[in-house]
Amino acid sequence: MGDTKDGSSIAAQRALTDFDTSTPHIGFWGRLFGKQPDDTSENDGDVLAVSAAGTRDMLLNIRNMHDMRVDDVAIPTADIASVPDDATLDEVVAIFRESTYSRLPVYSETLDKPLGLVHLKDIALKYGFGANGKFDLKAIVRPLIYVPPSMPLGALLQKMQSERMHMALVIDEYGGVEGLVTLEDLIEEIVGEIEDEHDVEEAQLWTEESPSVFIAQARAPLDEFEEAAGVDLLPDDLDEDVETLGGLIFMLIGRVPSRGECIRDGHGHEFEVIDADARRVKTLRVRLNVKRPVGQAAE
Q1: pLDDT tens, 211-244?
Q2: pTM reported for the whole predicted model
Q3: Three-class SS of residue 24?
Q4: Using CA atoms, how far apart are residues 170 and 114, in angstroms rounded to an integer?
Q5: What domains are there in the chain, each with its CATH number?
């Protein structure tokens, strides 16, 4: 936790210079794709033409990272899946299974006393595949990074790369854990949402958690959600102005809400923000103020 605000800003600035497209050196993207400055072909021109818009967006996102801080993207403490250091093997496996993560922070007594992280691969290699032996979680705990909430994202990305670590705990001025950031969180700020084989359920626009309660992506089209849920969330004169559930939330409060915030409209419908960052809402829990017979789901 030796980073200072000034030092972090300098590191971030140096990291961002690698992305300057006006310089002839290879830079970050060149190293990423294995390109040399003169490594071109006829097909390369077509590919670059097709992907130009996406590349511009990514470069803009990279530069925006200079102005974003760790606390803009960190997962709040309440949402962190973690493992106590006295957990049994079955308990650790259950937490991995429920969270679907490959890395989990390990703590002693409370999360404010972190010890490091445990990797699912280490569990599998040492205690899986029929292996025998007394389970010792502390023996396989790996180090992780501790950073202040004010640290620029560019500096954290550089730190993770140089130290080859994929997870950082955000520590406040009193030494308490304030949040968690992973390398995937940072990369998603550049390239957008990354979905893998474990994100099938999240890829759905919405699912009904219980009668009249939905877990929904903020990008879900509002008209389609209204039709499926059998509810009208907007007056007809505003339907053309709002296209998504996330847009509805912004219209209701006039700003991007934070994680955990609950918004209620004039009809008693509640919108709980499950996931969001400084720029957009990602996932919502929608509690509709409608009554349906028990067992009858929305179509």
Answers
A1: 999 999 988 899 899 999 999 898 766 656 788 8
A2: 0.52
A3: coil
A4: 11
A5: 71-191 (3.10.580.10), 203-287 (3.30.465.10)
